[in-house]
Amino acid sequence: MQKIEHNAAQEVVLDEPIRAVKELKAITLSLNSLLGKWNNCDRQTRGLVGVTLSAQGNALKVQAFGACVPKPCDWGVVAGNAYADNVSGTNAIAFEAQFDAGFKTSILTGYLDNGTLVVENFTVFKDGSGRSSYYDRAYFYKA
To answer: Which residues contact 83 (CB under 8 A, 6 or more apart)?
Structure first.
């Protein structure tokens, strides 16, 4: 224990609060429920057609595919952040990731809802084209 003199007549004893912090264990989220290839339920979508969530160690990797012809546009792979449903949760149920394509930035967020991955896409154009920033929500099933 650490003793601190408060004044000449009084002594305050601290119960080493640092010990409690040292005893906390880092929680590593299990990514298993998110991992896999996810396809858009709407086969006629003009937005995202697929999302692949993978792990590199404990880190989440996110790859997105847009609706292009003749084959989907690969947005590349970026680091994502995974989230539990509460502060002591151990299973990831949601994610977010940011893609920068130069002419636009897209922020993807997603969460599991009864086996469906709900993905929201917030896109901002940076190319001076005059296109509006937009929001889209789509539902994905595990392939």
So the answer is: 29, 92, 93, 94, 95, 96
Instruction: Please tell me which residue, 27 or 66, carries the higher pLDDT value.
Output: 66
Helix, strand, coil share (%) of the chain residues, nearest 5: 5, 55, 40
Q: Which of 53, 34, 50, 54 is nearest to 42 (CA)?
A: 50
Q: SS3 for 23?
A: helix
Residue 105 and residue 68: Cα distance in Å, rounded? Answer: 18
Read off the pTM.
Answer: 0.81
Q: How buried is residue 5: exposed, middle or buried, by Cβ count under 10 Å (0-12/13-18/19+)?
A: exposed
User: First CA to last CA across the chain, in angstroms?
Assistant: 57
Lowest-confidence segment of 25-29, 50-54, 92-96 by average pLDDT: 25-29
The whole-angstrom separation of Cα 38 and Cα 122 is: 19
